[in-house]
Amino acid sequence: MKIAVTGKGGVGKSTLVALMARVISERGDRVIAIDADPDMNLFGILGVPENRKITPISEMKELIAERTGVEPGQPAPFFTMNPKVDDIPDRYCIEHKGIKLLVMGTVSRGGGGCACPENAFLKSLLTHLVIAREEWVLLDMEAGIEHLGRGTALGVDVMLIVVEPSRASLETSHRIEKLAGDIGIKKLAVVGNKIQDEEELQFLKENLGDLPLVGHIEYSSEIKKINLRIITAMEVQGRPLQQVEELIHKL
Ligand SMILES: Nc1ncnc2c1ncn2[C@@H]1O[C@H](COP(=O)(O)OP(=O)(O)O)[C@@H](O)[C@H]1O
Ligand SMILES: [Mg+2]
Questions:
Q1: Mean pLDDT throughout 25-51?
Q2: Where is pLDDT greater, at 114 or 185?
Q3: CATH code: domain of residue 122
Q4: Which of 223, 225, 235, 237 is the best mutation target for the ligand 1 pocket, counting ligand atoms within 8 Å of the beta carbon and taking the most?
């Protein structure tokens, strides 16, 4: 399955992607997790050692120049819109505890989405990942999904919107719902996160409108320990892990 995870900043997207990747790899399936959020905190949550950090694809200037025919940052009226990317995931990912990882990086957006070689390259790569890979693909994304290309949107089986029990996060989810429709995402579902009690779960259910709730993860002191680097997502135990397993089962 190809799953994009989005939602307001801080709701727990990267945590969810990390836990899902772990559960999928531990049951013996192949999975590639892609950090496509400018925040880039997925590696830390999974506990990738500092010395193994890789260069984001968007910063690989020579590679982008070679594949698109144009140096990033150069004025370029003509460059390849469909650069070769099929060798990129295997060449540039790192493998950590059975999970493949790739970091996309950001393209400084001059105005409304830039028609530059970096963007063409990242878009082609994302589309390739969701269309051609025979493994689970998990995309950790920001809330602004409008720059996702149609090709990528079509390849995504489900877009999960992570929501915490707050008005602000619900408002973001409804904005995402609208954008997702515009770019052609086929299926949307919500995952409630940081749920402390029945009342909070009820609050979400009542305010999601047409968005289906596919699962939820409780507020967990285990998960909080990831922040302090006491544990990594690979070591979380108990209820939150079970809830992620149940979620994957439902998808
Ligand atoms: N279920 C949870 N219980 C407690 N804390 C959580 C939970 N999920 C996420 N967090 C915490 O919330 C913060 C934001 O999580 P993160 O995954 O980085 O969010 P995002 O990627 O959406 O910005 C982190 O400090 C994380 O440890
Ligand atoms: Mg994140």
A1: 94
A2: 185
A3: 3.40.50.300
A4: 223
Q: Which listed ligand is nearest to 6 at the C-alpha?
A: 1
15 close to ligand 1 (CB < 6 Angstrom): yes
Domain that includes residue 150, residue range: 2-250
- Report the candidate in 100, 109, 19, 93 with the shortest Cα–Cα distance to residue 56: 93
Whether the per-residue pLDDT at 19 is higher than 60: the answer is yes
Q: Tell me how many domains the chain contains.
A: 1
Higher-pLDDT residue of 8 and 75 is: 8
Residue nearest to atom 16 of ligand 1 (CA): 12
CA gap 11, 193 in Å, rounded: 7
The pLDDT of residue 223: 97
Cα–Cα distance measured from residue 165 to residue 8, given in angstroms and rounded to the nearest whole number: 12
Using one digit for the tens of pLDDT, what is the confidence trace for 219-238? Answer: 999 999 999 999 999 999 99
* Phi, psi dihedrals of residue 61, rounded to the nearest 5°: -60, -40
Quote the ligand 1 centre to 29 CA distance (angstroms): 25
The pLDDT assigned to 112 comes to 41
Q: Which helix (H) or strand (E) holds 96?
A: strand 94-96
* Helix ranges, the chain (H): 13-26, 42-46, 61-68, 88-92, 117-132, 150-155, 167-183, 198-207, 221-227, 239-250
Ligand nearest to the CA of 40: 2
d(CA 63, CA 59): 9
Residue nearest to atom 25 of ligand 1 (CA): 227
Q: Name the amino acid, one letter, at 17.
A: V
